[in-house]
Known about the structure:
Layout: H1 22-56, H2 60-63, H3 65-88, H4 91-107, H5 114-142, H6 148-156, H7 158-176, H8 181-187, H9 189-200, H10 206-214, H11 218-222, H12 225-249, H13 252-259, H14 264-292, H15 294-305, H16 309-314, H17 318-336, H18 339-345, H19 355-366, H20 370-380, H21 383-404
Helix pairs in contact: 1-5, 1-6, 1-7, 1-9, 3-4, 3-5, 3-19, 4-5, 4-9, 5-19, 6-14, 7-8, 7-14, 12-17, 12-19, 12-21, 13-14, 14-15, 14-17, 15-17, 15-21, 20-21
Amino acid sequence: MGTPTLDRASSSGRPGREPLTGEQRNAFAAAFIGWAMDAYDYFLVVLVYADIAKDFGVSLERMAFLTTVTLLMRPVGAAVFGLWADRAGRRTPLLVNVSFYSLVGFACAFAPNYGVLLGLRLLYGIGMGGEWGLGAALAMEKIPTQRRGFFSGVLQQGYALGYLLAAVTYLAVSNLTTWGWRGMFAFSLLPAVISLFLRSRLSESEVWEKVKLTQTRPADVLKQPLVLRRMLYLILLMTAFNWMSHGTQDVYPTFLKKGLGFSPNTAIYIAILYNVGAMIGGTLLGSLSERIGRRLTIIGAALLALPIVPLFALSHAIGFVCLGSFLMQFFVQGAWGVIPAHLTELSPDAIRGFYPGVTYQLGNCLAAFNLPIQERLAKSHSYGFALSVTIVPVLVAVIVLAAIGKEARGVRFGEVPETAPTRPASPARA
């Protein structure tokens, strides 16, 4: 199995306007909703971990480990579900995945103590790790080649939409009910059922079916030196990306409440605002990457985010805080809007279920200690200091790593060369 041709642009250099079929729309919607619900459940903990700490009588530093253990387990889910998807197709693993993480997320509403909740978040991390890689692979394999940039940007902003939904749910539950944080976890079951319904109506990926005919073994592809070198590079890139994202998001609601003294409702309104910025940035810059390239879009977004750091982390007036957080998430999630297309394009066809998700989630794993580190820095200095000293180096790292990398914009999935290595069918399959 050959690897994608690097730095290959589409023939026109411009995104096409080929309309989506019903099957393509359903595949994209299922991936988008699934990723949004993953993010929703993750950011529930970010928004309410101070409330949970109070109920369970544990410190904020210990409570922050709930997000860490979720991120640490995501590579496990990416590997398990990704390998399954490359062997058996995308559809069934995705159905099992969404059912698994939906039930685990719902069960969090009934956790009697910190230990049980920690175990459930560990399991949830496995489900969350499997969701992104499989959903992105299926969506990008079905989307027309010249529209990948736009739909990549929209798909990744399911993450911001999930955060926004968590913020809105927090407002509704805290102001209109007495359910507390448990009611927020219980609510997560409903949208997940919608995603499950959409996925049950999908057919298998045509790209995977073509690759299956070659009988190329994923293990053989993974042994190729170029594939391994690129995998190590992408893990480093995703480490920087995940630190950039979590470093600007996870501690920010606590910074607004504890660091700046804003009311919980005000902090949530600001979170809604900056997630709108994230969705706009991801969509616009994802689409832009189809014209100017994936790497150049990433570099430009990170460069423009650097001068925003003082406004984002050191402002005290609410107007400047709103502006800084909106602009920061516009550029941070704008850069992220490129990633679904970028990683899937750099993935060999035979391991596209495994490769993007594992590189993404191993980067997440290495960035998993961001929140505890920021909480510790905030305790010894201030939240503004903690945000500034962790964000600036990571933005620089994103710029450098994107500059030295490669891209495969416009590569056509499933176009297997005639010389692709194959293995003979076993007698049992003949």
